[in-house]
Amino acid sequence: MVESFNWKNIFLKDLDFGIALEIGMRTVIMFALVLIFLRSTGKKGVRQLSIFEVAIIIALGSAAGDPMLSGESAILPSVLVFLVILLVYRVITFFAAKYQKVENILEGVPMYIIENGRFTMNEQGDANFAQDEFFAEMRVQGIEHVGQVRTAVLETNGQVSFLFFEDEDVKPGLPIYPKVYQKKTNKITATGLYACTHCAEVLRLTQQEACSRCQKEEWVAAISDKRVK
């Protein structure tokens, strides 16, 4: 017969008021130390963090976690860990500012995603490129199709920078809104302008054929609407 749960043991175990007070004090102290450290790095928000800086924060969380909960872990060793992390951070950022190669290794480099109204070929081979997420970012910016965009760059902080065509220069392009994009097909039954769903190349097709740029065979009817400003 399965014994009933001991809810007191699950939620409290040996916790008493004194231990709870100590945990509270440890948490406040460690939280304050983490805030002080983050302020010392000069960063203002998460959107400005690179992968390197996220790794630093994870290391901070690991160092801060044990003293918050464990009465057997002293706070001063964690402070020492914080100081070492800060020193390493300062040294690495110094060399990153001085040497471009070091900065590229730590921060990455901006990646061109769209040029002249179509996808660049390099991002399609990148396993980290998520087309659905990128389309969502474009829709947030009021973009209806790829032909409205002259250049799109994925920055090292995860943001995307866009340069747009003037209205008179907008090209027929790959639609990015789901209802239209989902009409993609591998069978061309009517003559018209079609956009390759892989590279956004636009061709006038009379029958099914492979894209002349990427050799894929999935198409959707191109649209040429101007941006709504």
Q: Spell out the CATH superfamily of the largest domain.
A: bsu07140 like domains
Please describe the biggest sheet, giving its number of strands, its sense, and whether it closes into a barrel. 4 strands, antiparallel
Supply the CATH class of the largest domain.
Answer: Alpha Beta
Radius of gyration: 27 Å
Strand content: 5-15%
β-strand number = 7
Run of helices and strands:
HHHHHEEHEEHEEE
Determine the N-to-C terminus distance: 69 Å
Family: Belongs to the UPF0702 family.
Keywords: Cell membrane, Membrane, Transmembrane, Transmembrane helix
Transmembrane segments: 17-38, 50-69, 75-97
InterPro entries: DUF421, UPF0702_alpha/beta_dom_sf
Explain the overall architecture.
It is a multi-pass membrane protein. The protein contains 7 helices and 7 strands; from the N terminus they run H-H-H-H-H-E-E-H-E-E-H-E-E-E. The chain folds into 2 domains: 7-106, no CATH class; 111-221, 2-Layer Sandwich (CRO Repressor), CATH 3.30.240. The model has no long low-confidence stretch (mean pLDDT 81). It is an alpha+beta fold and 229 residues long. It is elongated, with a radius of gyration of 27 Å.
Task: Please summarize what this structure is.
This protein is α+β, with helices and mostly antiparallel strands and 229 residues long. 41% of the residues lie in helices and 13% in strands. InterPro entries: DUF421, UPF0702_alpha/beta_dom_sf.
List the helices and strands and how they pair.
Blueprint: H1 7-11, H2 17-41, H3 51-69, H4 75-98, H5 100-107, E1 111-115, E2 118-119, H6 131-140, E3 149-154, E4 160-164, H7 178-181, E5 192-196, E6 202-205, E7 219-221
Antiparallel strand pairs: 1-2, 1-3, 3-4, 5-6, 5-7
